[in-house]
Fold:
Amino acid sequence: MVEGGQASLVGLAPINFDLYKDTHPITYISTKVCHVGDNLDRYLMGRQFMVIFIAFCINMSGAPLADSELWGLPKWIIDIFLVTGFAMILLTAMIGQLATQVNASHCMLDYINTYFAVFTFYTAMAIEFSGLMHVSYFIQMVVGWLAGKPIESNEPPKTGVQLIFFWSRVLISAAVLCYALAVTLEGLFKGQTTMWKGVPNAVAVILFFLLMSVVGLLEGMQIAFFAVAKLKKSERGNAPFAMRTCELLFRGNGHNLPGFMIGRQLCVVSCFFIIARVTSLNVDIGVDENIFGVSDGAQEFFNMGFLGAVITTILGSISWQLVASAFPLAFLSNPLVYVFLRICLFLEATGICSGAWVLAGIHKRIAGFKRDEEYIGTAEERAAKDLEDHPENQHVEHGLRKLDGFTDAPEVFIKLMNNDPSVKEFMQSMSQSNLAAEENA
Structure:
């Protein structure tokens, strides 16, 4: 649900609430909060820590013991499927992630029309509120400043206590990240992690940062792809690689989007499990010296590997997602995005995770999922019916008819309408009253 919920909530962001709040009331419970102000970014932050935390817990729960044997199988099979964690990667990817994303990529409304989706949404929001990942916001601000495109919030500027509370959480999060990095790197350089034997310490460090970069790129691609999934073709940018990427991704009946999700998830889950091995400390308490001389209790906590989850969440996932959410078209213009899209589609084409399609098909039939277009139509059909998408994600006139003699509304006023539904309803009633008066005249 955490994986499918992300696909649904990101993809539904541009859609007008009025199109589905009656047909999908439980979906509306989540979206009416998620798609107001900056709550989508908050959800993405909390959700990402949830999914990485779960992946690290699965690695702890199912990682094989040394010299494990199973069913009398040859050692080379044991090494391939158990020692490397490949069996767990396939199990987690197909059952826990891919099958859900295949359905959620086209059946967003139906997929989160359940109270379990509401529960996971608010849990993610609570994790974000804790502030543990708040340094990601600072990273997003820095990237926007370097790109010459400062991040524009959909909410009024923070002031007073609210501003102090925000930056205090950023500082605490930065301190936690720096300490987690220091502990993890100390363990890596001393060879005190669960990394496979024979891998040099320097190589393990390089592998750690390389894999986090790959994870970050793939996480950002997912967000950017879903952000443009419901847009018109003409609104997907004109940069060469952005156009090539979108043409490949949405070719035909849209099969390549869920196909990408399968290949992407296989890559990401593999990286997660390898990073978990690289970053999980393996200090023999009472025999080896504790990292930085911490207490035995603290060292036991370090050995669980959750510091690696914090690092991966901030530096390998959330920061990239926030940037992709703020600049989806610019993100798609990166040539590496097109290259990794091809790689992911190739991995899906090998059939190694084709079981996800079977599981997704069974789930879809049992749950009775339907494609979103059956409920709300395509972007072009919505525009033709004067049911334009959310103004904060599309440069349209917010569903309001222009009054004679008036120009476009100022951006400040538009943001006020976005943040306060009552203001928007009032302006819509004014527009309708004016139209009725013209017709009567």
Notes: The chain has 21 helices and no strands. The chain has two domains: 2-396, 397-441. The two ends are 54 Å apart (CA to CA). Confidence is low (pLDDT under 50) at residues 391-413.
